Batch of 3 targets.
Target 1
Amino acid sequence: RGCEAMSVAWYDIQQNTFTRWVNDELKLRGLKVDDVKTDLKDGLMLINLMEIISGKKIGRYNKHPVIIQQKLENLNIALNFMKKEGLEFVNIGAEDIAGGNLRIILGLLWTIILRYEINRNGDNDLLKWIQSKIPEYGIKNFTKNWNDGRALNGLINALRPDLCKDHKSLEKKNKLANATRGIDIADKEMGVDKLILPEEMIHKKVDKHAMMTYLAQFRNLKPVNPASRVRVYGPGVTQGVQDSKAPFYIEKPIDCKGKLEVKVVDKSGKEVKHDFKKAATAPRNIDKYVASYVPKTPGTYKVHVTLDGEHVPGSVFTVIVDAELSVGGAGKILCFFSTTSSNIKQRKDIQGAKLLLQAKKIHLRKDFVPWIPVDILDKKDREKIFLKAGTRTLPIIIVDDKYVGDYDTIRELDENDKLDELLKMDGQKLLTEEEHKQRLMKYNASGDKI
C-alpha cells in the first residue's frame, strides 16, 4: 500500500508540473488547462501550444469541435505538425489523447518539453550546466540531490549573487522552508515560474522529469517585471458570441503589487462596458479577479489587461466574436439523435428524418458524418448542441453550422421544395452504395472511427 501511494505521488508530481508548464506557455493566448488527461482531447490546446512554442502557424483546423470526428481531426493535425517539426515519438495516436490515456499524454508532453524547454538552445546537457554553476553541491541527479532545498538556493545565488547569499548556511533539516524560500525568490526576482511546489520538490520520490522541466528555466531566463507574473485566461480573451456574456479571469500573486486595469475595445475602436471584481475564491497565495463584458456586434475585439500600465502576458488579446454559437459544422450536415429516448414520437421522428435524408443521398457525400448520439457526447458538448438549437427536442439537424430544425421542419421544407437547396446536394461527388457500406465498416456504433 505504501509503495502504491508513493507511485501515485510520483505520477502526480509529473502531471502537475507538466500541466503548469503547458499553462505557462498558453497564457500568451489567454488559455488554461485544468487537467491534461481531459483538456487536450479536442486538439485545440495542443494546436495552440505548438503554434506558441514553435513560432509557426499550423494552418486550418476546427476551432469549435464538439463531436469525436472533429476532435480526432484536430489531434491528427497537431501530431502531424509535431512530426514535421522533427519531434520523434512512437505508438502515440490521436485516439490515445482523445481517450485520456494519461501515460501516453505525459510521454508526449515530455517529448515537447525536452525539445522546446530543456534543449531549447541546442545544449542537451542540463546536468552538466548545473554542475558548472554550483560544483560545491556535488549534483549528480535531478531527484534526491534537490530534496533539502539547499542546492536550489545555491543555484539562484550563482546566477544572481545578490540573492540567497546565505545558501551555504541553510540547514538540511529545514528542507520545506528552504525549498519554499528558493521557489518564491526565483519566481519573484528571476521570472522562474513555480512549475513545481515546495512539498513536491522535497518528496523522496520527486519526479526527475518534473525537476528537469523546472530547473531548465534557470538556463532560459526571461525578462521579469511585476506584470509578467500575472495570468489571464477564459473565453472573454479568446472567443465570444454576440449578445452573450464573455467572462475571463485574472490571477496575480499576492506579493505582486500594482494597479490592475482592464479595457475592452470593439471593432470600431469604441470602448465596451465591462465588469471587474475580486473573485470569491482563489488559489493559495493568489489574488483572483473576475471580469466580463457582453459584445453587441460580431467582429474583432481587443482586451487590454495592464498592471501599473504594463501589459501582462498575452495582452493585448484579440477576440473573435461570432454572430452565433458555432459547433464546428461549416460545410457539413450534422444530425444528432438519442439512442435511449423513451418518447415514442421522438423515436419515430428520428427514424423518419433518417429515411428522408437517406432519400436525399446525404449518406453518399464524401464529407458524410454518421449520425451522432448525444448520449455519448461529453456533457459540455451535449449542452452546446442544445444551446445551439435552442431546444432539447431530437433529432437536431444542423446544416453548414446553422440549426435547421427537427423532423417536422425538414419534412415541411421538403414538401415546399426547399430542402434540396438547403442541403446543397447539386454538384456533390457521391459514393456508390457499396463504397458507403465499406466506409461504414470503419465506424463503431457511436460514430467513432475504428
Target 2
Amino acid sequence: MSSETQLSKQLVNLSQQEKNINANQSFVPLLTIKGAIGPAISDYLVREIDSANMLNNIPLIIITLDTPGGLSASLRDINQSILNSNIPIACLVYPQGARAASAGTYLLYACHIAAMAPATTLGAATPVNISAPMTSSTKNKEQVITPSTMEKKVLNDAISYIRSLAQLRSRNELWAEKAVTEAATLTAKEALKENVITLIARSPQALLNKLDGRRISIKQQKIELSLNNARIVSKNPDWRSQFIATITNPNIAYILMLLGIYGLLLEFYSPGVGIAGITGGISLLVALYAFQLLPLNFVGVALLLLGIVLMLMESLIPSFGVFGVGGLGAFVIGSIFLFDTQLDQFKVSLPLIGGLAFISTIFIMFALGVIYRARKSKIVSGQEEIINAWVTVEDDFIDNGFVLFNGERWAASSKERLKKNQQVQVKAINGLTLVLVQQTTMTANTKE
C-alpha cells in the first residue's frame, strides 16, 4: 500500500515539473510567406500576429520571406500589423535562393529585425505600374520620357513610405529610395554592408540563436531578447486562409462569377427545382467577396457584363451576328482588363478567357436561345393542350355526355344539343369534365 502511495506521489511531482517546464518555456511562432503577397497571405499573417500578441509566453515572431512582390493593399495591412505589434518581429529571406522583391522589400524594412540567408536577394521595389525614366534617340538627340502626374504621385508615395520605415528602424534611407526609383537590388552580404538588414542567418533556428541576448527597440523602448529556452513552432495557414487563397485566385474568382451569372440566367429561363439558381447565387456571392479583396477594374466588369447582354440579345433577337460578334469582343476585352494590376499572379489566364469565351458563346447564343424559343412555342401536353382543342361527340346528348379527344373518352357538358360525330371546341375544364363552346361548332364529314 505504501509503495502505491509513493508511486502516485512521484507521478504527481513529474506532472507538476512538466507543467513548470511548459510554463517557463517560450514559443516563437514561425510564419511563412511563399509566393505573391495577396489577400490570403495578408489575412493569415495579420490574424497570427494578433493572436500571438494576446499570449504571454511569446518573446519573438519570425516570418520567412520568398516573394516576387504583391498587392499594395495587402502589403500595407501586414505592415500595419507589424508596426502595431507589442512583440518584436524578425523577417528572414529564406531559404537560399529566395528573394524579397518589390513588396517584400517594404515588408523587410517594416520588421523590427531584418535578416537574410546566404544567396538571397532583395530590392526592385518600384511600383509595377511605374516605369523608370527612359531615353529615346531622335535625330541623334536624347529625349527623356518622364512619367505622368499620376505616376509621379504613386512613385512619391512609395518613396515616402519606404523612407519612413527606414527611419523608424534606423536603416539605410538612401538605398531604400534607390530601390524604389531605380529598382536597385542587393545580395545578402551587400545588404548587411549597406545597413539594409540586421544580420545574416542560414535558417530560422540560426536566426533565433543569434538573436538571443540582443537588445532591440520596440515602440521607443529597449528590450533584451531572452531566447535561450525558446522553441520554434510553425504556424501554417488554417482552412480560412486556404479558402481565401483559393477564391482570390483570379482564375477561380472569374469562373465563380460566370457560374453565378449563367446559373441565375438558366434558372430564369427554365424554372425548375432551383438547383441552377441556388448554385448560381452562391457562386456569385463568393465571387463578389473575392472581388472586394482583389484590385477589381469596374470598366472591365462593365465590358464583360455588356458582352453577356449582347450575346443574350443575339439569342433572342437574331441580328445576323452583329450582337453576337460585338458581345464576344466585349466579353474578351472585359475579361482581360477585369483586374487592375500588372502582376501576372493576379491576372486572369488568357487561355482560360479564350476557352470560357467559346463556352459562353455556345451557352448563351444556342442553349438559352433554344430554351427561350421552347418557352414561346405552343404547349402540346397537359391541360393547356385541351383548352381550345376540337373534340368529337361520341353520342347525341344535351347537358352531359361524352366526347373523344386524341383517342381518349372524356366526360363533357354543353347547354345545346350535340349530335354524334359532331366536332366542337373545348372552352374550359371543370374537374374532369370538358366544358364545350356553345356558339362555335362545326360538323364533320362522317361516313356511316
Target 3
Amino acid sequence: MRFAPLVLLLLLLAACGRPTPLLDLIQEEGELVVLTRNSPTTYYEGPEGFAGLEYELVQLFAEELGVKARFIVPDSFAEILPKISRKEAHLAAAGLTVTQSRESMVRFGSSYQEITQQLIYLRGTNRPRHITDTIGGTLEIVAGSSHEEELIRLKEKYPDLEWEARDDVESEELLYLLREQVIDYTIADSNEVALNQRYYPRLKVAFDLTAPQRLAWAFPHSWDSSLYDAALAFFRKIRKNGTLDQLLERYYGYVERLNFVDKRTFKRHVASRLPPLISFFKKAAEETGMDWRLLAAIGYQESHWNPKAKSPTGVRGIMMLTQATAKQLGIKSRMDPEQSILGGARYVRMMEKKIPERIKEPDRLWLALAGYNVGFGHLEDARILTQRRGGDPDKWADVKQSLPLLSRKKYYKDLRHGYARGREPVAYVDSIRSYYDILVWLDDEKNKEPETQEPLPLTKAPAAL
C-alpha cells in the first residue's frame, strides 16, 4: 500500500499532461470552423439568407454542440481536402464523395446521402453510350473531384480518354456551359443534376458512370476523436428522429414536381385550374393597378395555381407567401385563394418600392421579381456588375446578362454579397413573362369576333422587352 501515493501522483501528472479534447476546446471557444463550397446542394445565399443541405446540417450540429458555425469557402474545390488534412478547419461539409484514395487523406464520418456520378450531354446531340464515346469531344470536369478520380481510373483501361480538369469552376457552371454548347460533356453528381435540370431541361443523363456512392463529412486524421464521435452521434440522432429524411425531402423530394412544364401543360391548366381564380385575380388587379393576367402568370410560376401548394421552406398557397409576409399584409389564411392572390399582388407592389423610382416599367417589375427570387442584395450586385461591364443597370435586358455571372468566382469575389445562383432569377422572370404572353394571347383570342380572328404566334420572345 506504500506505493499508492506514488501511483496516484503519477496518474495526476499524466492527467495534467493530457491535451484538452478538441470538442471541449470548440465548446470553450464557441465556434465550429467548417470548409464548404458554393453550390445549390451544399451552401449558398438565397433571398432569405443562407441555405443548402450542408448548411442546415452544420447549423443543427453546431446548435447541438452549443456553438456557432463559421463557414469558409476555399478558392477551389481541390483545396478542401488538403486543408482538412492540415487541420485548417474542424471539418468539411461540401457534398464530398467517399473514395478509397480520399480515405488515406481524411477521415470520413457517417454517410447521409447516396449519389451516382453521371455523364451529362445535351438533348438534340448524339447520346453517348459508353465513356469512350466522349473521345473527340470536349469533356470538362471539376479538378480534384471524385469525377477526376474516376476518369483517371478509367484511363488505365481506355488510354485515349481525354478531359480538362478545371479548378476555376463548380459543377453548376459546367452544366451551364454544357447547356450553352460551350462544351460537349461533363460529369456531375446525380443530386446536382436533378436540381439543375429544373432550369436547364435540355440537360440529359447519358448513363451512370459509377455505382451509388456515399456522401459524408470529412475530418482530419487524429488520435482525438471527440468531435468525430459527436458527429457520429448527431447523425444517429437525426436519422432516428426523422430530421435527416425531412431535410432530404426539403431539398430533393420536390424536384420532380418542379420540372419544366411545357406550354401544352400550361394551356391545360388554363382550362382546368384558372377559371375559378380569374375573379380573384381581377379583384386584386383593381386594387393594385396591375394586369390580372400578369398576376395570374406570377401565381402559376409560384404554385401552378394550386391553392394547397406548399414549398420545402414552408411558403404556401397560390402566391406562395411566407407566414411572416402574410401577417405583414393582413392575410389571415394563405390557403384561401382570394386572400393569397390579394396578398401576392400587394407584395409585388411592395417589392417594386425597393427599386429606384427612376426605373420605369416594365424593367421596374422584372427587376423587382428578380430581386424577390434571388435577394435584393444580389440584384444590386448584378446591377453594379452590369455597369462595370458597360451595360445599363436600369435595364432588365442588360442586368439579366450579368445575373448568371454571380455564380462565377471571377465575378462574385469582388462583390459585396458574393456567390449567388444567378441563373435562377433569369429563368424565374422569363417563365413569368412567357406565361403572361400566352395568357394575353389566349385572352385576346377569346375576346375577338369570330369573323375577324386571325392566327397569331403562340408567344413572344421572353427577352423582347
